[in-house]
Amino acid sequence: MPDIALQIRIDADAETVYRALSTPDGVAGWFTTGAEIGEGVGALHRLSFPGAPMTWDFRIDRAEPGKRLAQTVVAGPPQWLDTEIGYALEAHPEGGTVVRFDHTGFAEVDDMFREVTMGWAGMFMRLKEYVETGKPVPYFTA
């Protein structure tokens, strides 16, 4: 199965980065303003996007503040169902935090997979800008 794997260094501590990944204001600051964000294992991140007829629902499978967030896609486009999303956070030796991101379990490399790969890359540039400046720059405005 093809997987997406990305890495970015953000000039902020891991707790700040984790809040951007796991809280309503955080997710709305870089990902989508259409975000209903639950907290803790078993809760959902329910995301909506402009023009999309459905929400994308990510169930939290693992939540370790400042260290790791793991999710499974439980609602959304068929190609996304049961794929897994993981964020691992580590201190960078020269300062800041390294975010290692994996989105795994896609059935094939098709046009949607390629678009999603580019989308995640763009979103992580927004994540970096948002965390480092504190200014919201959502990729999607729902």
TrEMBL record:
Family: Belongs to the AHA1 family.
Pfam families attached to this UniProt entry: AHSA1
Protein's UniProt name: SRPBCC domain-containing protein
Originating organism: Streptomyces plumbiresistens
Gene3D superfamilies registered for this protein in UniProt: 3.30.530.20
Domain annotation Activator of Hsp90 ATPase homologue 1/2-like C-terminal: ranges: 11-132
